[in-house]
Write a structure and sequence with these properties.
With about 160 residues, this protein is α+β, with helices and mostly antiparallel strands. It has one domain. About 15% of the residues lie in helices and about 15% in strands. A 5-stranded antiparallel sheet has the order 4-3-2-1-5, with no helix packed on it. Strand 2 and strand 3 form a beta hairpin. The C terminus is likely disordered.
Length: about 160
């Protein structure tokens, strides 16, 4: 009987120590920026027609063509430093999950030309959410924060690319 009690106490201690040893890691990899359109959970990329660039949600990087090659950067190119990401239209590429969305750039550029506006979009957050929106740069490349948010339900069904 004494042996059974010792075994039971040992099991309880073992389970308790194993439970305390669990570590919870919460990493925000792939968190959409606050300027991204709301209503999309399983999306890897946006195409930004006005600046002819992509945004990689997982890597928090813009992808644009510059100096003869596709460039990945946390910031848009200098000529777009005043581009308003909150009001600019974002095409949700909801069925492309590779690493090179620009493979379809020619099709995207024609279908989603500069100035393209699909269904109205609402941003995930507000400008003043104190999130890193991946477009502010400490080198005086800050984007102007002027303009109003558009209301709506998002861009469901737009921006489909075959992969």
């Amino acid at each position: 009987m004494k042996t059974i009690k010792l075994i039971a106490i040992g099991i309880v201690l073992l389970v308790t120590s194993a439970t305390q040893a669990q570590v919870s890691v919460n990493v925000n990899i792939g968190t959409p920026p606050s300027w991204g359109p709301s209503g999309y959970d399983q999306v890897d990329y946006y195409y930004l027609p006005d600046v002819q660039a992509y945004y990689d949600i997982r890597a928090s990087q813009f992808i644009y063509f510059g100096s003869g090659k596709w460039v990945r950067s946390r910031y848009l190119p200098r000529q777009y430093r005043n581009y308003d990401l909150y009001n600019g239209y974002k095409v949700v590429l909801n069925d492309y999950h590779g690493r090179t969305p620009y493979t379809y750039y020619k099709q995207h550029k024609v279908k989603y030309y500069k100035g393209y506006k699909g269904q109205p979009q609402r941003s995930i957050g507000n400008r003043n959410d104190n999130h890193n929106d991946n477009h502010n740069d400490n080198r005086n490349d800050n984007h102007k924060d002027n303009g109003n948010h558009k209301g709506g339900n998002g861009n469901k069904g737009h921006g489909k690319s075959k992969h």
